[in-house]
Design brief:
Number of strands: 14
Radius of gyration: 29 Å
Strand order of the largest sheet: 2-3-4-1-5-7-6
Shape: elongated
Helix content: 25-40%
Largest sheet: 7 strands, antiparallel
Oligomer: single chain
Distance between the termini: 48 Å
Structural class: alpha/beta
Amino acid sequence: MFLTISTSGTPENPATDLGFLLHKHPEKAQAFSTSYGTAHVLYPEASVERCTAALLLEVDPVALVRRGKGKGRGGAPDAALAQYVNDRPYAASSLLAVALSALFSSAMRGVCNARPERAARPLPLRVEVPALPARGGPDLVRTLFEPLGWTVTVTRIPLDTRFPEWGDSRYVHLVLDVPDGKLTLGAALRHLYVLLPVLDDAKHYWVSADEVDKLLRAGEGWLADHPAQKVITSRYLARRWSLTREATQRLELVRLADADDTDVEDIDNAVAEEGPDSDAEDEERADKAVPLAVLRREAILAALAGAGAGRVLDLGCGQGQLVQAMLKDTRFTEIAGVDVSMRALTIASRRLKLDRMGERQAGRVKLFQGSLAYTDKRLKGYDAAVLSEVVEHLDEERLPALEYAMFGSARPRTVLVTTPNVEYNVRWETLPAGHVRHGDHRFEWTREEFRGWAGRVAERHGYGVEFVPVGDDDPEVGPPTQMAVFTQNDQSAKNDHSHQNDQNGKSTKEVRAA
């Protein structure tokens, strides 16, 4: 199998710098032993104006079978002789992707001590793969490469030129160009490393859990937002559902972190619940008083029952304590727990024992990943939504986005918001003066500040709002937790219902027309 990478240059930036970037000298033809044969790196042309590096991989079919041990295409043939007579020595596949990673590992990472400025700079590039298996045809090739900035030229290869009536094979001749230098060499190599086996839709080795890490490393900076992310992830991971789900969840965290211009660790932080009003702290002092977390859940459940809510969203559900409490009450017919943190959702799933839950009970609950700062059609159609100890974990400049996503887009009939009352902090003996209750709290409001924010939100979106104290209502500093109960105004609710009917009618007409 064969692949070439070419670039052009000038006297100031000679094309032969490609040798420095690949860590392979243009004046030498080099051979490297691999598990499945021999890889050769050579330069068919090397001048100031143009330089081409070629990777030739000679595959030993016998070694492929012996090392495959029944796994992958090399060891799982469709016929007895196919173990030894197949396309693996000639068509680009995961074998070539592994060779790329092994021979050009520093270049893939963008590391070049001799020319660091060139490694970080986009280059005009051309990649040519003469024989590439493409399960999905030219359309899939374009779908995978064009969103990444490549100009794609893909030509089907006939089964046999002497017998045109036999038609085309599943192989294509692929040429990728980036004439205006949109990509670095490292990015280009990472694209090839992931997408070559995706197009082949097969791997020559057993796909284990560490493949998820490999995929995310190679996909850094482009895979999270790729429109064909699901296809890429599923095929790269050999359609193993558990690995695909893990990769998809981690990529969603990356996407949300990029959108918020923050680190993944700052997004995936909903597990720790330390502080004077957390469940962990409450359990330690359970013998002294009813824990505040329990009082908070009881207040929320009472408000939901009073609103007649059957279908409820728990937004920022954390480890699932409220979802667990709602499942015990048959009045709640559908419960959705939403959190940005996959770690929290995993713990919630274990807490709820979803894998062992009966069919009827499991039909009442679902957990999914999402950000409260973005509109999400999955959040529409519920009777009520709960944001329990959530708003204070957002930067204040992000609150308008949350406000619109919840009150402007999702628009449940009832919205419950609880948040700490900062005035009460002086009553916590274990909380140092001036400190917030949780290390991730971006702010904590006074009663006046919370009422002011809630009142403005209600007025803007057609809701009424009432305030309920949670915990001992201290005559001087108020309760430890403050809760706002938002209820849609009658006219606003009618408008929403009318709009929903219009949408349903439109959908019905569209279906009939179709």
